[in-house]
Protein: HTH asnC-type domain-containing protein
Amino acid sequence: MVDEFDRRILTILKNDCDVPLKEIGKKVGLFSASAISKRINKLKEDGIIKKQVALLDYEKLNFDFISIIFVKTKYHKDYAQIIGNKLKSLPNVVAVFFILGDIDFVILTVNRNRQDFLRIMEKLTSMDEIERSDSRVVAYTIKDIDFSSIEL
Amino acid sequence: MVDEFDRRILTILKNDCDVPLKEIGKKVGLFSASAISKRINKLKEDGIIKKQVALLDYEKLNFDFISIIFVKTKYHKDYAQIIGNKLKSLPNVVAVFFILGDIDFVILTVNRNRQDFLRIMEKLTSMDEIERSDSRVVAYTIKDIDFSSIEL
DNA sequence: GATGAAACACTCTAGCA
DNA sequence: TGCTAGAGTGTTTCATC
Structure:
């Protein structure tokens, strides 16, 4: 379904989706732009390419309150989806993972300031499915979201 | 430096960077494509737009071993940058955050399988600056990396 | 600093071999 | 898949507001 050419195309696009089709062709060894075009559109249809987005420097935009929240819930695994859906619709939430262990959810949030952050915490603490939440301020973003090192 | 128009442009681009300039113009209320073009290029120069990338569905590409690693180091804060640099160059690492509290670093990794994951853990355990690491398998990705809910 | 127009090169894509 | 033709897109320049 996804062959070696597709993988090479994806490797380029996940780092930079503004590369001309012609140039992609050269790099992957498929020299017609139309062939690349058709493959990319197929990958979008199949949902393998989910989106093409601009990654922003949120610190430069004065989002200085990045935090990671660890959530422990009252109920067991079956509630993962239900509680998960509530968590992911909280404001300023970038990612939510359900993990196994003493912590149930890990949430990444990007906030402009403490007030924004407290807005999340207020909603979080009002959810009675939640037993306990630990929120940690990110002191340094050592590596921002970046999939370039992933080898397909 | 970044005005309301820029913020509106960024709001569009962080969700979809493939929107024609003309259409962006209509949406933000700046009706010439050339004005939008100049602003976007300025935002790139300033590093506010870091990259334009394709977001992929890694689960569909059989990356079934997503994990979050909590790292506690032996040394104090000053080592954050040094150890951080080592951590971010580990294979298959998507993000690294230095946080305050009992855990020092949170690492997000995306792996195809257990072997790939163990490759990271091997390198991690061989670093003597690290006191302890807890790795958690992601059971469900409730919300994958997505900045669309962030209000600029 | 924005607009609209014009000109140009570049880019994408549909149809067909 | 490759080729080609036509439509669409981004960028620059200009006069004007």
Chain A has a mean pLDDT of 95. Chain A has two domains: 4-45, 58-137. The CA atoms of residues 12 and 24 of chain A lie 7 Å apart. Chain A touches chain B through 65 residues (CB under 8 Å).
